[in-house]
TrEMBL record:
Keyword Membrane: yes
Source species: Clostridium weizhouense
Purpose: Probably functions as a manganese efflux pump.
Name assigned to this protein: Putative manganese efflux pump MntP
Name of the coding gene: mntP
Keywords: Cell membrane, Ion transport, Manganese, Membrane, Transmembrane, Transmembrane helix, Transport
Chief subcellular location: membrane
Keyword Membrane: yes
UniProt family annotation: Belongs to the MntP (TC 9.B.29) family.
Transmembrane segments: 6-28, 40-59, 71-87, 107-127, 133-153, 165-182
PANTHER family the record matches: MANGANESE EFFLUX PUMP MNTP-RELATED
Amino acid sequence: MPILLIIFIAIGLAMDAFAISLTTGLKVSENEKKKIALKAGIYFGGFQALMPLIGWSLGYGFNQYIQELDHWIAFILLSIVGGKMIYESLFGDEDEENIDINSNKRFLILAIATSIDALAVGVSFAFLNVNILTAAFIIGIITFIISLIAVYVGKIVGNLLRNKAEIVGGIILILIGFQILAEHLKLF
């Protein structure tokens, strides 16, 4: 899989973390922004890098049994993840007001929740024989950078972009799923 495609997948996966970091930036004081931005980057980037490794490990064991279906599995998983992101951005109900915005517990819960998508993508990577260490590194670094920046710009554009970012991320993942399917079916 080309690096550019992995970068697009990473950007798509980072959109949940972007949206949460953006709204977090909206809620923190100027004095706390640097600390919170770094915390968001580390938690979200770290989990986004870890989960594809776990997913890849799970999927790799089954690869030899379902090679004929791997492109369909990748397409379905990416479409489900992308569709879920779009659905949640339009109809989701976020109730994070009861948890301290600066707490490690809040960041841990949100990092796990936003990286479940990356676990599914990791399974897809096993079927596509992607170099998982490179992919996980790229996904983690891109999510780290996007989360860090999002906290800083949160005060400026927080509520304006929040749902739109998740929609764009979902669309990117669905399009990549279609591209993988079309490639294997030799439609291009």
